[in-house]
Write a structure and sequence with these properties.
The protein is mainly alpha-helical. About 70% of the residues lie in helices and about 5% in strands. One of its GO terms (molecular function) is zinc ion binding.
Length: about 475
């Protein structure tokens, strides 16, 4: 890690501190211009230190993303040095922003001034004080966001949760006071990471977060934000049940319900509101020009759709696991389940392309999904051609998709229902004339299997057949 770069970042932040002090002592006509310069200076500085810290935390997380990480193995000496250095810097950033908030709160020069015109176009900030307060809170939240990642990477989960809830509290403050949910969206992203990264998470984490935001929805939020956070909270709950291996079918139905609710918000244009709600995703400013990043609605839609993909993919894995031990009596039920999960996954992949603009998919990601759809489709065709529990087990236990997809012909060959012989030519074995589900290599095996118990199975299957 470059200590020089972090030292430079601290120096730039100190310069910004002086900038704000001078701005708050300026005549009112110049104050807003100087405060705008301060906000841009801090944003540039933050971008600089983020570019330093991001790869370091990412590398640390990669080193710890192993069995040692999951069992909370202590940091080694080198990792402890990195952790202490980054943590100290982030503590400084939090303190810096607290100092700026206190300075703005006590200043009277901003009273009566409006927020910059380019900001008012895309965010619901009317007064200059409201705008600059929200700006500083977002910077403080950004430092906490990095702290959550650092603590998680270091397996200091209690500290990570403490930093996370401080971040969530800032999100609540911004939502209620400034009608901005950019920090709340960051909270959602980190909560999803927390619930997916750490298998040992208990329900208390999700329950505490839900309690915090539920009060927000019930007491303080207007209609549109209440609906947004309703989906937000439901998404966390479904994510928690998904990680707890509860009923995946119920979880999938819940994600579709959330998606329908978000589409209704979009249809009613509750996220437009004369342009002011376009700012919910946050602003990116450079050289005095601000452009809008992805909206909070788009981010939430992306999270819901991503969870759909995870759930359906897990359902496929579960169905394949069951197929590995499939018996003749459960063959048809297991096959139907495997086909159903594959169809659901393909539907999610195709739907993500249909809603690519809504969920913010890049062209490269769309291309990956389009090419990736062919694999589950080929597996679905293969599973549909299975004719026995033996061939199903062989398919399910194959080492990799590419391995068993190259052996389609072999797996589609029938196996004699009695002796287990494979048909020498595809389609050469004859089906049982009644149930149409079992094939035999010859009449001798058919007679023996009938007397050995197929008589009862056949009657049951024939009654189920349409």
């Amino acid at each position: 890690m470059s200590a020089v770069e972090l030292a430079n970042a601290k120096r730039d932040l100190e310069a910004a501190r002086c900038e704000l002090r001078e701005a708050l002592r300026s005549p009112s006509k110049k104050a807003l211009k100087r405060v705008t310069a301060f906000s841009q200076h801090v944003e540039i500085t933050e971008g600089a230190w983020a570019r330093v810290l991001s790869p370091i935390i990412h590398t640390l997380m990669g080193e710890r993303n192993s069995d040692g990480f999951l069992i909370q193995e202590p940091l080694n000496a080198a990792q402890q040095l990195v952790y202490a250095s980054i943590h100290g810097f982030l503590d400084y950033c939090v303190g810096f922003n607290d100092d700026q908030l206190a300075a703005v709160e006590s200043a009277t020069i901003l009273d009566g001034l409006s927020a910059p015109a380019d900001v008012r176009k895309v965010e619901s900030f009317d007064s200059a004080k409201q705008w600059v307060t929200a700006h500083i809170l977002k910077r403080k939240a950004h430092a906490y966001s990095y702290m959550v990642n650092l603590e998680d990477a270091s397996a200091k989960f209690d500290a990570a949760d403490a930093a996370f809830f401080r971040l969530a509290a800032i999100g609540c403050q911004l939502v209620t006071q400034n009608r901005s949910v950019s920090v709340a969206s960051e909270t959602l992203k980190l909560a999803m990471m927390r619930l997916s990264l750490v298998p040992s998470v208990n329900c208390k984490f999700a329950r505490d977060l839900r309690k915090m935001h539920s009060k927000l929805v019930m007491d303080d939020l207007p209609y549109k934000l209440g609906n947004y956070f309703g989906v937000f909270l439901d998404l966390l709950e479904v994510m928690d049940s998904y990680r707890s291996a509860q009923d995946l079918g119920v979880a999938l139905d819940s994600t579709w319900d959330m998606w329908d609710r978000l589409l209704k918000l979009e249809k009613k244009q509750a996220w437009q509101d004369g342009g002011r709600w376009l700012g919910l995703g946050g602003l990116e400013c450079s050289d005095g020009n601000c452009k809008q990043n992805s909206s909070a609605l788009q981010i939430l839609m992306n999270q819901v759709w991503t969870l759909m993909g995870r759930i359906t993919n897990t359902q496929i894995d579960n169905a394949r696991t069951e197929a590995k031990v499939a018996m003749p009596e459960s063959f048809q039920k297991t096959k139907d389940k495997w086909e159903q999960t594959l169809r659901a996954y393909i539907s999610v992949l195709e739907g993500s392309l249909e809603h690519a603009d809504r969920i913010g998919l890049t062209e490269s990601r769309q291309s990956q999904i389009a090419s990736g759809t062919s694999r589950p489709a080929a597996v679905l065709e293969l599973v549909g051609g299975l004719r026995s529990a033996h061939s199903m087990r062989a398919l399910a236990m194959s080492g990799s998709d590419s391995h068993y997809l190259t052996r389609c012909h072999q797996f589609q060959q029938a196996i004699c229902g009695r002796c287990g012989a494979s048909e020498p030519v595809l389609g050469s074995f004859q089906k049982c004339g009644a149930c149409k589900t079992v094939r035999y290599c010859g009449t001798d095996c058919q007679r023996k299997h009938w007397g050995a118990g197929h008589r009862d199975e056949c009657k049951a299957r024939s009654q189920r057949a349409p």
